[in-house]
Amino acid sequence: MTEPERVERATRASRAFAAVVAPALVALAALPWWGDAGWMRLVGEMAYYVALAQLWNLLAGYAGLVSVGQQAYVGLGGYALFYLTGELNINVYLALALAAPFAGLISIPVSFAVFRLRGAYFAVGTWVVSEVFALSASLIAVLGAGSGLSLTPDILREVAPDHGGRDAILYLMSLSSAVLVVAVVYLLLRSRHGLALTAIRDSEPASASLGVNTFRTKLIIYVLTAACTGLIGAVIFLQKLRISPEAGFSINDWTVVVIFMVVIGGIGTIEGPFIGMLVYIVLRELLADYGTYYLILMGAIAIVVMLKAPLGIWGFIVQRYDLQLFPVGRRLVLTRSPQASE
Amino acid sequence: MAWLNILIQGSLLGGIYALFAVGLSMSFGIMRLVNIAHGDFIVLSAYVALVVTQGTGLDPISSLIVVVPVMFVLGYAIQRGLLNQTLSGGLLPPLLVTFGISVIIQNGLLQGFGAYTQRLHEGAIETASVQIPGGISIGVYPLLVFAVAVVVIGSLQLLFYRTGLGRAFRAVSDDADTAELMGIDNRKLYALALGIAMIFTAVAGVLFAIRTIFDPAAGPIRLIHAFEAVIIGGLGSLWGTLLGGVILGVAQAVGSALSPNWQILAGHIAFLIILVVRPSGLFPRTRDL
Amino acid sequence: MSLLATKNLSAFYGDFQALFVVNVSVEQGETVAIIGANGAGKTTFLRAVAGTLPTAPEMVTFDGEPIGHRTPHDIVRLGIAMVPEGRRLFPSLSVEENLLLGGHSERKGPWSLRRVYELFPRLRDLRHLPAPALSGGQQQMAAIGRALMANPRLLLCDELSLGLAPVVIRDIYQCLGAITAEGTTVVLVEQDINRALDASARFYCFQEGRLALTAPTKNFDRAAITAAYFGL
């Protein structure tokens, strides 16, 4: 007996996209062989910004938790890496792996405080928490207090013995952690948890009345995002070789640009952050000689987008052309025409 | 006696925090809008005062004659031109638009004035002090600032509870749709509300800049302190905000007494503790957050 | 020329059409009832008239002037006031402050705080209490008084009897007489058909966003009304 209908996930566009993704990833992974150190640095940066943007988007665009304090976990991940390798002499790869659960664990008590707040008050509350971490780091001697910590040469040698190898490995780390994060976000949104998240995003009271445990879902997302952000933070600062409270917990570096990327690219979509990141990089490179004018311009663009096209560039494209490259939706397909009613 | 000193200094410090908070409180109370750029407007006021004092030779407090109208018009224009359009879109538009404004102000000031720290100079009053029994000396300036905070909050209470305009503000805050059915032009009222909030923001900015060095990036921490004072005191209550400022100031004074580096951190920790233990603040008036 | 006239009024909430080509007219001084089941479009109709729901300009005319696109606060200034469904008094304001707020538009006319207290003496005793402290019936009187303070030429009343006991409803409808005696035109939206028909000269019956029936109320066949009400 054939089913009269089935649920289809993929679209024509997503199938086309999937065919392109694999070779593109291979090409990117091969960059150390066909590109130079400058390219690796830039693409690596694009990769970790995409990761941070996907995570912020998951939190804000799906779980409805608009955080202006994710830089707390970037810094926590970075500091965890430096402390574990520097003070406790733990292998750098192991330290990287530990950075994620460390950040995730810290986010649990943080959530007790900030989940008391809603909306914009939640946003500022997360910001306060980040400030607390930054201030605390500047007061703790073993973390280098105000001046921070540096990676020693032997830690770097653990990554790879030579300079070229190191650049390649650090680049591949950025790339692979970005791919990992995007994969996690994609699979999550594809699963029934993703469906729950989308429901929460659309209407929290309605989804709660349908049995979605909104508090627990949001908490899980918050902790998961914190852990992944911590991992990315560790990867970032491994490449930067130094960490300080100001750099580690910098709202400008890790949150302001990330928010702009997501908002301009298209909040609540997986495709959006990619587009937003490209816009950011292009603007930054174009306006490199003009100081911080590119930030002013991005701020203005974000405002215009919010007022005129709140779904961002990708959202606009979706509305016009109904595209989905990362198939997270579900479509009901009828395989047999319905019986005529009497 | 050392504790009494801490209490007094901390309380007076609370005056400036309460002044920071007034504008934020107004825009949340009336428009349900948390202005992320609020701290940057405080700093912007200080820069406007800087320009006026350097251009005219006026002292900072007298420069308020120019700064206040400028900030009023700016607030009215921004609410009318930009923020009014964000009010019906849910949580994200107001937050992200004010976030964008914040980034624009900070970077605009950076491009215009550079990253150097600045200060406004009022003269002898900055260091004058009076002695009270017990060997404690109280700065005249902090006392002045606290007095201004009390006067500002008292005047706002009068405005809200004794005038027709205040009645309209309270009605719009309760139920904007029905207020429109009464003949109230919400858009103009919101613009007026932000304009008035900016008056107090300007006063706060100038008073703060006389006492503290500032630079283009000084906005966010002011927003945070304003926010902490509002949350500790409880949303919707202006006198509560004054008390919230005082508690914040005292917490900071206690931290500072332990070690100067601990001042700001102590304030944040006190805020987080109160948030966990009594999330609606000490004297909450509004029902929703 | 009618005081209020709607021409082919259609209204939408997003993609959902709530009113289909509704033609209603109300003459100066009349009391007209609008009846219909839940979801028939009665409140939507009032919102379109009051300006809360924007429509094409010429779909609603007041004294011949198109007002479909005007904002609610402009429409109040022109002389239309609403007693909203569910009263919607301002909870942070006292009874008197609510009444004073009704006068925000400062229109001239027979109604003032003193005259409202004459019409509803009980309100004077309660005037400094916060609005939520009043009973349902008292709140309804306050809401009516608040609308009167705008000295409207046209008073829109949305579900005056909602949630009130019959005795209270009777008292409120008795006051309507004093209001219409001043020459105020009244449009009454009601689910309580008998009250509405007793108080009005003409009625319109809505059914699923459409006009199902309109006639003078005097001696009209109730069975026909029931049929139109339920779409039979």
Helical coverage of chain A, percent range: over 70%
- Describe the biggest sheet of chain B? 2 strands, antiparallel
Topology of chain A as a string of helices (H) and strands (E) = EHHHHHHEHHHHHEHHHHHE
Nearest-angstrom radius of gyration of chain B? 19 Å
The residue-averaged pLDDT of chain A reads: 87
Tally of DSSP helical segments of chain A: 16
Biggest β-sheet description of chain A: 2 strands, antiparallel
Helix content class of chain B: over 70%
Count of distinct strands of chain B: 2
C-alpha Rg of chain A, in Å? Answer: 21 Å
Describe this structure in a few short sentences.
By secondary structure, chain A is mostly helical.
How would you explain this protein's 3D organization?
- The complex is a heterotrimer of chains A (342), B (289) and C (232).
- Helix content of chain A is 73%, strand content 4%.
- Chain A has 342 residues and is mainly alpha-helical.
- Chain A has a domain of 229 residues.
- In chain A, the strands form 2 sheets. A two-stranded antiparallel sheet of chain A has the order 1-4.
- In chain B, strand 1 and strand 2 form a beta hairpin.
- In chain B, helix 1 packs antiparallel against helix 10.
- Helices cover 73% and strands 3% of the residues of chain B.
- Chain B has one domain.
- Chain C has a single domain, classed as P-loop containing nucleotide triphosphate hydrolases (Rossmann fold), CATH 3.40.50.300.
- Chain C is built from 9 helices and 10 strands.
- The model of chain C has no long low-confidence stretch (mean pLDDT 91).
- Chains in contact: A-B, B-C.
Question: Which descriptors apply to this entry?
Answer:
heterotrimer, A: 342 residues, mainly alpha, two-stranded antiparallel ribbon, B: 289 residues, 3% strand
Please describe the topology of this protein:
The complex is a heterotrimer of chains A (342), B (289) and C (232).
Chain A: E1 5-8, H1 12-29, H2 31-34, H3 37-62, H4 71-86, H5 92-114, H6 119-139, E2 149-150, H7 153-159, H8 163-190, H9 192-202, H10 204-209, H11 214-240, E3 242-243, H12 245-248, H13 251-265, H14 271-286, H15 293-308, H16 312-321, E4 331-334
Antiparallel strand pairs in A: 1-4, 2-3
Helix pairs in contact in A: 3-8, 3-11, 3-13, 3-14, 4-5, 4-6, 4-11, 5-11, 8-9, 8-11, 13-14, 13-15, 13-16, 14-15, 14-16
Chain B: H1 2-31, H2 38-56, H3 60-81, H4 92-113, E1 129-132, E2 136-139, H5 140-162, H6 164-174, H7 176-181, H8 186-211, H9 219-233, H10 238-258, H11 263-277
Antiparallel strand pairs in B: 1-2
Chain C: E1 4-13, E2 16-26, E3 31-35, H1 42-50, E4 60-62, E5 65-66, H2 72-78, E6 80-83, H3 95-102, H4 113-119, H5 121-126, H6 136-148, E7 154-158, H7 166-181, E8 185-190, H8 193-199, E9 202-207, E10 210-216, H9 222-230
Parallel strand pairs in C: 3-8, 3-9, 6-7, 7-8
Antiparallel strand pairs in C: 1-2, 1-4, 4-5, 9-10
Helix pairs in contact in C: 3-6
